[in-house]
Predict the 3D structure of the following.
Amino acid sequence: MVNVNAPFGLRAVGELGSNIQNGGTTEYNILPGLATQIYKGDLVQILAANGTIQQSAAGNADCLGVFNGCLYDDPTTQKPTWSNYYAGSITPANSEDVQAFVYDNPFQIYRCASDAQVASTVAGAHEVIFETFGFNTTAGSTATGKSSATLDIGSTHATNDSWKLLGLAEDPENEDLTAAYCSVNVIQNLNEIIDST
């Protein structure tokens, strides 16, 4: 069966240990005028130089979390404006920062699409559950604001990547592990955030 998914970035769907998923985000800032776009479902990282966030580079191990949208005072109308993606090159009225909202709970579970088949057989796919992977970071859609990031199946490694594959998501139209764009559940590699030295 062919999966019908199109890439959609990361979507918060639950919390490790079956805890209540409250959808909570933390507020961070985007540097005024940052040229790079950030889409809903994109991985983001903190910039050490100024403490603001930007889209994470592909394979970046320093991921803070997943972008959920932003709020800023529109430079033209000077009215508060919410957007589920950051369009790039926005300098809010009065040169304020853009407020970004990020899922940064290290126990958050996300659903995403794989960029390729997880394995050529279902048994082979089960063998890589709990291994870690990187993400392909690509552009998103300015019409929907959604990211088109996908789990990079080619980057599998037992310990060196940022996202642990938990298994198949409950998504009947996209559950073929032997085809691209399979829906899977992932969690951030916990050693990256809460057990790093």
